Amino acid sequence: MNAIVTDIVGGAVADHTRNINAFIRATHFDHPTLVLDRSIVAEQYDALKLGLGRANIHYAVKANPAREILEVLIAKGSHFDAASRGEIELCLSLGAAPSDISFGNTVKRASDIAFAHQAGLTIFAADAEEELEKIAENAPDAEVYIRLIVDASEADWPLTRKFGCARDKALGLLAYATNLGLRPVGFSFHVGSQTRRAEMWRTTLDQVADVWRAAQNAGYVLDLLNIGGGFPAFYGEAIQHPTAYAAEVMAQVTARFGDVARIMAEPGRGMVAEAGMIAAEVLLVSRKSDNDMHRWVYLDIGKFSGLAETMDEAIRYQFVTDRDHEDMGPCILAGPSCDSADVLYEKKLIGLPLGLRSGDKVIIRNCGAYTSSYSSVGFNGFPPLDVVVI
Amino acid sequence: MNAIVTDIVGGAVADHTRNINAFIRATHFDHPTLVLDRSIVAEQYDALKLGLGRANIHYAVKANPAREILEVLIAKGSHFDAASRGEIELCLSLGAAPSDISFGNTVKRASDIAFAHQAGLTIFAADAEEELEKIAENAPDAEVYIRLIVDASEADWPLTRKFGCARDKALGLLAYATNLGLRPVGFSFHVGSQTRRAEMWRTTLDQVADVWRAAQNAGYVLDLLNIGGGFPAFYGEAIQHPTAYAAEVMAQVTARFGDVARIMAEPGRGMVAEAGMIAAEVLLVSRKSDNDMHRWVYLDIGKFSGLAETMDEAIRYQFVTDRDHEDMGPCILAGPSCDSADVLYEKKLIGLPLGLRSGDKVIIRNCGAYTSSYSSVGFNGFPPLDVVVI
Fold first, then answer.
1. Where are the ANK repeats (chains A, B) (predicted)?
2. How confident is the model at residue B6 (pLDDT cuts 50, 70, 90)?
C-alpha cells in the first residue's frame, strides 16, 4: 500500500490521520519532525469525555506539552495534571485556571510546592510521610490524595513500584495528613501504561475499592477518586474505541465506588498519541556479514532523539514507507547515534520492504505521546526532535 | 567523611577534584548542575598523550561537547572524532582544523557527508556498501577506514553489534571502496565502553590483527589503525593510571601491528568523566510499606535529565553526602520524573546514610561524560541539566 493504512479501532474504520499524512508527503524535512494535528486531539478529547461522563479529564501534560495541544484542551474545558513547576507555569501561561491543575507528581521539590500553592493550586498527590510534611509546610490546608501501589500485570507496560504506597500504609497516611492540617480527600492509582481493554481494569479497581472501603470504615470521608491514566493508543494491536473504553471503565468504577463526588482521569498517551506522526528518513541499510539473515536499517531518529519508549521494545511503533507494496522482510531497526544502546527493535524484528534504501522517507505512526519531550538536548550533536502542529 | 574521598587510581592517591568539590559546597543550585573543571581535562589529556605516544588523540566529542572543554583540547593539540554535522560545526567554530576532525559515525546523512567534505574533512568511517556509496558520491577521493565488529566481552559495558562489519566482509569492503574511487586506508574497532584494564584489550587486538594481516596479504597497503575508545573512568572499581593504561595498550598495538604510520585513539569517557561532578538534591526518602526492608531515595536528577547511563544499571555512579559519617543503609535510588522507568538503581542497591532526607545535597562523582548531552529537552517540564565550567 502506498497510503497510510486506516486505523481499525473497535471494528470501526477511521482515517483521521489523512491530514498529517498529506502534510508529510508534501513537505521536505531536513531533520526528523513530529507532525501533530490539533483537530485529532479535539476529537479524542470529545470521544473520551463522552465515555468518562461525570469524571473530570486532567490531561497528563508530560505526554506532550506542545502549546497548541494545551490551547485546544483549555478551550475544550480540560483540566490538567502537572509533574513539575515547569508544567504548571506552562498551563497557567496559556490561560488554564489554577483550580483546574493538579500537582500529581508524588516527588516534588519543596519550593515547587510553595510556588504551586501561591499560584492557586489546591490538589496535591503524596505517597509518603515526608512528602506530606513538605506539602503541609508549603501548602497548608491543601487537599491531598494518596497514591496506592496496585498490581497491574495486564498492561502492555506495567509500572514499577516507584509510585504509590502499599495498602498497609494507606490509612496511616490519611491520618498523618490530617494531623499535619492537610485535607486528605481520597486515593489515586495507575492501572499501567497502555492498558488495551477496559476489562483489564477489573482487578486493579477491586484492589483500590478494598482500601477505599477500609478508609470509610475507619471514619474517613472520601470524595475524590483519581483513576489515573492507562488509556491506550493504537500501536498495531486492536484497542477499543475511546468512548466505549472510557464508558466501560466508568461503569466498573460506579459499580465499586458509587457516586463519588469527584472523579479524576488522567489520559496522556490516550489523548495525543494518535494525533502525531514522525517524518523520518532511512540513513543506511546493511548486512553485518555475508551470511547475515537480517538487514540492519538505520533511521535518522533513535532512542535519544524521540523514540525513548522503544526501551526494552516496550512500545512497538508502526512504520510506513513508499515501498510497502514491494516484498517485505524482517530487519533490526536502529537509530543514528554513535551509541550501541541506540537500537530500537532487535529481539522482535520489524518487517520493512526489501528494496528500502538510504534516503527513503519513513512515516512512524501514532507518535504524538512521549516523543518530543523525551528527546535529548543534542546527544551526538543531533538537534532535538522538531515539532510542527497543523 | 565530610569531604570527597580521594581517588585511588593504580595505587596512587590524587585529589584533583578538590576545586569542584569546593565550588559545589560553596554554591546554591536551583536545579541539578554538572560542574566541570577544565584543568582536570587538561591534566587528563597530558596523562593519556604521554602513554599513547605516537598515536593521535581524537577526542570523542559526543562524550561532552561543552565549548570550554573543546577549547582546552584544541589548545592542547587534540584531534576530534565527530558523530554528526552538528559536532563538526561546533569543533570548526572553535578553531579546530578540518584535517584534525574525523567523521567517525558509520551512519551518516548523505548531505552531512557533503558538508563535511566541503568543510575540508578527509577521513570517514564506514562498515557497509551503501555507506561507501554515499561517501564516494559526496566526498570523492576521501580516505575511509572500515569498522570491524569485535567480541568485547571483557568491558564493563560491551557494545552491541550495531557498529562494524564481520570479518568475512572486511576485505570485500576495502575492494568496494577502491572501486568507488575512495582511498581505503585501514580499520577501526571499539574494545567496549569502560574497559577497565589494558590487558583486557588483548583478545580484541588479536582479532583485529588477523584481519589486518589478511588485508596486507591480499595486497592492500594499510597505514591507519583506529583503536577507538574504551578508556575507563573511575566509578568505584580500581582502574590503572591513564598513562600506564595507554602505554600498555600501545605496547600491545606495536607488538601486533608494528610501525603503522597513523594510529588514532578516541577517548571520550576516559578524557572527561572524572572532570565533572553533579550537584543534586534529595527530594524524598520513603518506604512503600511498613514492612519494607529498603528505603526509596528520590533525587532531583534521573534517567531523563542526565543519568541515562544508569540504563540496566550499567554505570554505577558514586554518591557523596554531608552525612556519610553517619550510619549507612541500602536503598533504591530513583529520579524525579513521573515515569516508572526513571529508577536509577534497584537490582543492586546503593548505600546511603540512614539519616538522609529531603533537601540534603548529594554530589554525584565522575559525571563529566555522557550526562549533559543525554539530558532531555524538558521531560516532565524539568529543564535540561545545567552545566557550569570552572
1. 52-85
2. very low
